[in-house]
Design brief:
Helix content: over 70%
Number of strands: 0
Number of helices: 4
Order of helices and strands: HHHH
Strand content: under 5%
Radius of gyration: 16 Å
CATH class: Mainly Alpha
Shape: elongated
Structural class: mainly alpha
CATH architecture: Up-down Bundle
Length: 129
């Protein structure tokens, strides 16, 4: 694995940014735009996905990064649950639901794989050099 110096270089963070951007775009739909509580929740949870990756990376150690990746998984799951609410209220179509849900699922899968890698890596992060 190449040395990554900034969180923006992480593919998983890039995917999380795309998910968050698409959630923001979707919540601007006229049908959706009046449900302020759900908008706040789904924007918050999708933003937390990318923020937890960045914060965990910035901590400089594998254990802390792994811990923050578990928060990432939780926030992605929360976003998925909120997508069900949006679909059930007919704010989004089933196709839109599936596309956004799959993006969150990909982040969950990659987070799990990254956690496994960090736990097995001899490199412990810049914090413990």
């Amino acid at each position: 694995m190449a040395t990554i110096r900034k969180f923006e270089e992480l593919e998983i963070w890039q995917l999380a940014r795309i998910l968050s951007r698409e959630i923001y775009k979707t919540t601007k739909y006229p049908e959706f735009s009046r449900d302020f509580k759900l908008i706040d929740q789904i924007r918050g949870s999708s933003g937390s996905v990318m923020d937890n990756i960045a914060e965990g990376f910035g901590r400089g150690g594998n254990k802390e990064f792994s811990n923050f990746l578990t928060f990432t998984i939780g926030s992605a799951n929360e976003t998925q649950s909120q997508l069900y609410r949006a679909m059930d209220q007919e704010y989004i179509t089933e196709t839109e639901f599936n596309q956004l849900y799959e993006k969150a699922d990909e982040i969950i899968r990659r987070s799990g794989k990254l956690i496994q890698y960090l736990k097995s890596s001899d490199h412990r992060g810049i914090k413990f050099k």
